[in-house]
Write a structure and sequence with these properties.
- The chain is mainly beta.
- About 5% of the residues lie in helices and about 50% in strands.
- The strands form two sheets. Strands 2, 4, 5, 6, 9, 10 and 11 form a seven-stranded mixed sheet that branches. It has a four-stranded antiparallel sheet with strand order 1-3-8-7, with no helix packed on it.
- The longest helix is centred in the last third of the chain and has 4 residues.
- The radius of gyration is 13 Å and the shape is globular.
- The termini are far apart.
Amino acid sequence: QVQLVESGGGLVQAGGSLRLSCAASGPTFSLFAMGWFRQATGKEREFVAGIGWNGGSTYYEDSVKGRFTISRDNTKNTLYLQMNSLKPEDTAIYYCARDGRPFTTAQAMGVAKPDYWGQGTQVTVSS
């Protein structure tokens, strides 16, 4: 059983930064692409960023390109999302998730059906 636990959310002013972390349990973290998704109140959950199983590829939703950076440390079983130049429209619950298939690239996370999800962490950006 895989568990994903997010942390690092909070309240920040527009233009500020936050770094989200996602700690994964189990020995198979390094075999799977990982991604970040978010869900704002009243909206559907959307893809934000993905990273390939070995960290060799990254992929971003258009609205966060140039502002967010996804990374992973396979030695620590941890996924990260560095968020800079935050905007009020970035306000949402952020979830990390694992691709259900091993050895896929970052682009696969954009259409993946994740098999494991974290519980989410709230990010609120004030104007």
